Please model this.
Amino acid sequence: MRRPLVARIIALSAVLALAAACSGGDDGDATDATGLPGSTVGQSTTTVSTTIAPTTTFIPDCSAMPNATDLSTLVGVPMSDGFVVGAGTCQFLGLNDQSKSVTLAMLTDAGDQAAWADLQASLGTPTPFDDPALQGALVGADSTLYIVTNGATYTVLTLATGASAAEQVPLSAAVLKFWLGV
Model:
């Protein structure tokens, strides 16, 4: 009979100790190095910041990209508002047919850019895109048009007309030119 009572007391003590340790916010009282109130001896004013997740190209929304109205005009298909689908990446679906899409990415993090380059290399050798306005642009094996400029990797994949992805690269070029203002 005593053993369950002792176990409950130990468990309750552990929970209370954990709650006390986790709730130690700034209550305005200065404490010294031993944790006693009333002294500022031993207090540190240094703040340490630790990143517990990998950094990435974070975007809260698609506002850094062409909007749905502009995309609709550029690709000739009504597009809905975009939504974030990955690091620095937004997808715009067809307004009346969600099987149609335009996927845009603006990767600014060096790790994301390296991962993108590795992915493209693993898919096959990219083809240079012949357009003086998009000097250095490449077409990946999956027909994604991309360029590294202004410290970022910009990508456009258009699958909006029902034609093959390769046949839609000129639409991706129109989107990319509009986006970059060239």
Q: What stands out?
A: Confidence is low (pLDDT under 50) at residues 15-23, 25-32. The beta strands are 83-86, 89-93, 101-107, 127-128, 138-139, 145-149, 152-159. DSSP finds four helices and seven strands in the chain. The longest helix spans residues 2-22.
